[in-house]
Amino acid sequence: MKAFTFQRAVTPAEAARAVAAKPGATFIGGGTNLLDLAKLEVETPSHVVDVNRLGLDKIEGTADGGLRIGASVRNSDLAADMRVRRDYAVLSRALLSGATGQLRNKATTAGNLLQRTRCYYFYDVTKPCNKREPGSGCSALGGFNRIHAILGASDKCIATNPSDMCVAMRALDATVETLQPDGATRAIPIEDFHRLPGSTPEVETVLKPGELITAVTLPKPVGGTQIYRKVRDRASYAFALVSVAAIVHADPGGKVRQARMAFGGLALKPWRVPAAEAALVQGSGPAAAEEAADEVLRGARGFGSNDFKIPLTRRTLRSVVADVTRA
Ligand SMILES: Cc1cc2nc3c(=O)[nH]c(=O)nc-3n(C[C@H](O)[C@H](O)[C@H](O)COP(=O)(O)OP(=O)(O)OC[C@H]3O[C@@H](n4cnc5c(N)ncnc54)[C@H](O)[C@@H]3O)c2cc1C
Ligand code: SF4
Fold it and tell me: What is the pLDDT of residues 255-267, one digit of tens each?
């Protein structure tokens, strides 16, 4: 690991200014992703600013009946919060499906939003990777790409976003709140927060240098049946090959009245397709699930080892819809 200097900030403004002031500076939350990447020298920060003592560790109600989750709230604490379990069960379930208890005890809300792809070649500094070293090439294209994207990929990068939390937050229409080094604040809809790779896969979010995540807000509860289905290689300690966060209101007879569905494991950002949600509401029975899957998979493309994700997504969606509409 390359040596770096360390600073423990005590206010959000100090933290944002400190990172903006030094080239190569970065924030650290739980450190469960940043330190792994620093040890491999995939990331080589010159200065690390600890954001764990900024007072951003609370979960509070908002004036409009929603919830504000501080950036430093641990994944375990968020999953266990009674308001989250009762009103945003899909988020609690997504969090509990991620990593392990020990990791969830350290991992923070902001760190989870910004965790980097698990593409094998991104972690291997001996291999070309446009995300790690722009212009060097993409080893996953034509290489082993079992965990890679089938949607939203480009000829520069086919990585996926590995977060479970973000998939549930996408279904819940969360908003990311930030503080910039000049004191300005922003509220960024999670839909716009992560970027698709395009020709600049190294640019992963819309954050500017030194911009600190301070909180994530959830709108008021939407009710419905909320489930998170994660398909992976092992029952724990594994990232999603395909995941679905679903919030569905259905009649006792199984007719879907409202649906929200976000998908993980398919693209470099949580994937949501309004036309798929509309297909579930307009149609009925198993045919509606097939039409929804057609909409989700419009434009899907496998790259060899990950071709299986296309039928797997369809089967997972079918199973989720059967579960939430069971009379
Ligand atoms: C073995 C293993 C298995 C895992 N399995 C899963 C899984 O199944 N599902 C899943 O979702 N995740 C999984 N994870 C990933 C884990 O969830 C992430 O490592 C964790 O959420 C990152 O949070 P952190 O607080 O430790 O972030 P850090 O490592 O501290 O930081 C990550 C990034 O966020 C930035 N950052 C931190 N705080 C802020 C802030 N306030 N503002 C701006 N930038 C900030 C840092 O600069 C860094 O770039 C796994 C990790 C490991 C090691
Ligand atoms: S898929 Fe993206 S992260 Fe993986 S090697 Fe290609 S450019 Fe790098």
Answer: 999 999 999 999 9
